[in-house]
Design a protein that fits this description.
The protein is an alpha/beta fold and 223 residues long. The chain has six helices and nine strands, in the order H-E-H-E-E-E-H-E-H-E-E-E-E-H-H. The strands form two sheets. It has a seven-stranded mixed beta sheet, sandwiched between helices. Helix 3 links the parallel strand 4 and strand 5. Helix 2 runs parallel beside helix 6 and helix 3 crosses helix 4. It has two domains: 30 residues; 192 residues, Rossmann fold (3-Layer(aba) Sandwich), CATH 3.40.50.
Length: 223
């Protein structure tokens, strides 16, 4: 009887080990997406982490991707409803490890807020390697600063090259780019949206986060 019980225990142990192999293999083989959040500038960090960053991460994870976040400092982004702890610093990122890069807005940022040079370098390399890059509102300005929007269609809340009562001067970073409205716009492997959850709250225009992320996922899966 003891031999039978021992034998059954061994069989059960082997079965469990075998059942775990595909799961572990899948976890290791999941393609990785790099998410680059801003470390400051949000007027409502808790809201943006939940409604924008949280939505992006959830959709990407459900689509079978492993999401890793990176910031310049690698420090914790503090929020009353839950902090975001980056997986690594930007200077630790190996672009070749990722199938795409996505940048949330995390609410409007002033034009004077500096952009980490590592972010610019990562974006340029991702585009050069043919990988999709997605950005929303404030993130779109970073694409313009990286110089990859020239002759490309893009989305933003409004045309940055037009003077309005609220805009006293144009944004030269967008010279040569093609403004195409505030909804989600795709031009090749560059995907942009002009409305984040914060701006939806202010204006009533529909948040582009779900559609931007889904378009980004679809573009990655084409490869």
């Amino acid at each position: 009887m003891k031999r039978i019980i021992t034998f059954m225990a061994i069989v059960l142990f082997i079965a469990v080990c075998i059942s775990l192999i595909p799961t572990q293999s899948f976890a290791q083989s999941r393609p990785k997406v790099l998410l680059i959040p801003r470390e400051g500038g949000s007027r409502d960090i808790e809201f943006m982490l939940e409604k924008e960053v949280g939505t992006m991460k959830l959709m990407l994870t459900r689509a079978g991707f492993k999401v890793e976040t990176a910031t310049a400092s690698g420090g914790r982004i503090v929020s009353p409803g839950g902090d975001l702890i980056p997986d690594l610093r930007l200077d630790e990122v190996k672009v070749a490890d990722y199938v795409g890069v996505i940048m949330p807005c995390m609410a409007p940022m002033p034009p004077t807020q500096p952009v980490a040079p590592e972010t610019i370098a990562i974006i340029k390399q991702a585009i050069a390697e043919g990988n999709p890059v997605a950005a929303q509102l404030g993130g779109v300005s970073i694409l313009a600063q990286a110089g990859i929007l020239k002759d490309k269609k893009y989305a933003l809340l409004s045309d940055p090259l037009k003077i309005t009562p609220r805009r006293k001067k144009t944004d030269p970073r967008f010279i040569g780019a093609i403004y195409s409205g505030r909804g989600v716009v795709q031009d090749g492997n560059i995907i942009t949206s002009g409305i984040c959850p914060f701006i939806e709250n202010l204006t009533g225009f529909p948040d582009g986060t779900p559609k931007l992320t889904q378009t980004f996922i679809a573009e990655i899966k084409k490869k």
